[in-house]
């Protein structure tokens, strides 16, 4: 009589999940001979399903990012208008409290709040963080105003270079404190079980449908407004164009963060391998592009061109860059868990990330802006140039 163990009747899926210690060699050979064709067929049928599932998930993800990016962009524009020289007379590109200062504070607070909730990863969380918070804050606009102070394009402020240093210092401190305050408030909310951390399957489906329909409605309305108010209202056209371009900027930032490889240094600078290269690259590219648009805008007098440039700056480029994610990554680098690298390595990486980002963005942006400074110096129109630095949404 054979010493081999008797296997219970099972299908292919059950055998695969069975304990390997309960199956002898002859049984495995038998199973392989009898089910080879079944496995091959099942694999072929599964591949298209996995691919389709991936495409559907990515589509839903970008729908969420697009929807919340439009909301974040409009919130930023609204907050900027409230605190700008037109209403509250607080924010100004010629002062230490620059434009988008308060929107950056609010965006960092909101991102800290969402991160500390520890929600289950999914389209909604990505939409809120990458879309809403990422577009509510803008690094390129902040960097551009500091760059204008550094190169002396703001003649209404004495010692503009010193003012630029103050803008950087005050900005980094307040943005970081805002993020941490958001985390603390989130802990208080979580301790009282106010927010559910996971949606049911039915609720998720309803949420997907509502977000998709809302996105379609918003885009349709924006396109309709552009068609109705073309050549009639500069502000409305710029707002609509900004809203339409916001999803493109946010989606591109998300893709850049996913595909950009980490640094691969060895020996002494191994700490740089921990830097978030995706956000770094997006902020550098956005800072260069917004400076280029600014220079082009100074040399054009065509209204249509001005509308497109303002829409690109306020919508696409402002959403391509982010302060909230940058600050969040800086703080997370400092919270390195004890291990091979240690806490000191985390602090070093955090400071290195701040210095590299600010230096690269300011250097690249200032090189572009200097072309306009030199040109206007030669023409004796630097005072006119200063009056143009506070324009735009």
UniProtKB/TrEMBL annotation:
The portions of this protein that span the membrane are 61-84, 96-114, 121-142, 162-182, 203-228, 234-256, 277-299, 311-331, 351-370
Q: What is its main location?
A: membrane
Which domain of life does the protein's organism represent? Eukaryota
Q: What is this protein called?
A: Fluoride export protein 2-like
Q: Name the family the entry cites.
A: Belongs to the fluoride channel Fluc/FEX (TC 1.A.43) family.
Q: What GO CC terms are in its UniProt record?
A: plasma membrane
* Bilayer topology: Multi-pass membrane protein
Q: Which reaction does it catalyse?
A: fluoride(in) = fluoride(out)
- What is the annotated role of this protein in its UniProt record? Fluoride channel required for the rapid expulsion of cytoplasmic fluoride.
Q: Name one Pfam family in it.
A: CRCB
Instruction: List the coiled-coil residues.
Output: none
The record lists the lineage as:
Eukaryota, Metazoa, Chordata, Tunicata, Ascidiacea
User: Gene encoding it?
Assistant: LOC100183087
Entry GO MF terms:
fluoride transmembrane transporter activity
Q: Where in the cell is it found?
A: Cell membrane
């Amino acid at each position: 009589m054979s010493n081999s163990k008797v296997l219970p009747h099972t299908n292919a899926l059950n055998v695969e999940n069975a304990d390997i210690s309960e199956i002898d060699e002859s049984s495995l050979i038998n199973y392989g001979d009898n089910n080879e064709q079944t496995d091959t067929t099942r694999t072929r049928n599964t591949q298209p399903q996995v691919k389709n599932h991936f495409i559907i998930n990515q589509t839903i993800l970008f729908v969420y990012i697009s929807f919340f990016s439009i909301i974040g962009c409009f919130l930023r524009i609204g907050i900027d208008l409230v605190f700008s020289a037109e209403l509250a007379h607080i924010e100004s590109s010629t002062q230490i409290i620059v434009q988008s200062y308060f929107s950056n504070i609010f965006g960092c607070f909101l991102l800290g709040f969402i991160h500390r909730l520890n929600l289950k990863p999914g389209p909604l969380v990505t939409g809120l963080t990458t879309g809403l918070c990422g577009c509510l804050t803008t690094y390129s606009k902040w960097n551009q105003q500091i760059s204008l102070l550094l190169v002396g394009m703001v003649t209404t402020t004495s010692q503009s270079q010193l003012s630029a240093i103050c803008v950087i210092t005050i900005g980094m401190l307040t943005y970081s404190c805002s993020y941490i305050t958001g985390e603390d408030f989130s802990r208080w909310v979580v301790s009282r079980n106010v927010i559910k951390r996971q949606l049911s399957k039915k609720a998720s489906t309803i949420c997907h449908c509502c977000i998709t329909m809302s996105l379609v409605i918003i885009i349709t309305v924006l396109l309709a407004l552009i068609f109705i108010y073309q050549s009639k209202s500069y502000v409305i056209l710029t707002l609509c164009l900004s809203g339409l371009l916001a999803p493109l900027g946010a989606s591109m930032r998300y893709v850049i963060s996913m595909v950009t490889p980490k640094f691969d240094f060895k020996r002494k600078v191994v700490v740089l391998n921990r830097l978030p290269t995706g956000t770094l690259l997006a902020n550098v590219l956005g800072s260069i592009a917004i400076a280029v648009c600014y220079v082009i805008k100074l040399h054009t007098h065509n209204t249509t061109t001005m509308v497109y440039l303002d829409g690109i700056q306020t919508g696409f480029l402002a959403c391509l860059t982010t302060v909230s994610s940058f600050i969040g990554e800086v703080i997370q680098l400092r919270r390195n868990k004890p291990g091979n690298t240690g806490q000191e390595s985390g602090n070093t990486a955090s400071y290195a990330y701040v210095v590299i980002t600010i230096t690269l963005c300011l250097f690249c942006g200032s090189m572009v802006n200097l072309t306009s400074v030199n040109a206007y110096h030669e023409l004796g129109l630097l005072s006119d140039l200063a009056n143009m630095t506070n324009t735009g949404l």
